[in-house]
Amino acid sequence: TESHKKYGYRLAEIYEKLKAIPKAIAQYQKNVKLFPDDFRNYEKLNVLLVEGKKYSTAQVILLKATKQPTCPNILFKKLAQAYSFLNNKKSAAMAYEQYLRNNLNDSLAWYEFGSLYYSLKLYKKAISPLEKALELMPLHSASLNKLTDSYIKTGDLDKAINSLQIKLKQDPSNENVLLELANVYKREEKNQKVAEIYEKVFDLNSDKNKEYLAKAGHIYYKIPIKEKAYAVYHKLISKGFKDPVVSINLAEMEFEK
What we know:
By secondary structure, the chain is an all-alpha fold. Helices cover 77% and strands 0% of the residues.
């Protein structure tokens, strides 16, 4: 009856408030059996089971709930998370997909969904949910990092460059992002852009990054953009950098004048 349903749920809540967690879990489990359409019990029980790291039990309970036609959509997300805890990533992805059909604005769920595909190295599948996550959370660095790497892994270098440029707007002095962007430009054989980035990396730390300025000079020399190579080589020499290739190239350019 409705009164039994009400009192059963209330009793489990009292146990929970008294920190009698085993009794609370037992009562919620009893309620689930007696009143399978009262989804409050599934939600509360899931919280306690996850807190106790009883992920397998949580997954069984939530799977039972989601098989019912009136199941609240939020329980599909909880099921996805339970599968994730158990490292059952494919089942987790299916549960996220079911949940997100009716919860298009849950930004973190989109990120978690995309991250599952990313961890499975299914980079093409990871892109769409990660794009959605970033659309909803434009400053979410974890989404941007995984999305950028997914673009690179799938060979969509133009989108990778765009993502890296967004990252640089957020953090213009990030040396790792600059070097990642240089590597993408290198794959596209945009050598002048690679050299320009190496110059920026040198400017960030002129004592530590002299080798990058040397690389920039060598690229300019090879393209050739001799006036830039000449300027870069002279800057290196003024910083006390010694490299036979720099000396030879510079001597050749001096001879050509």
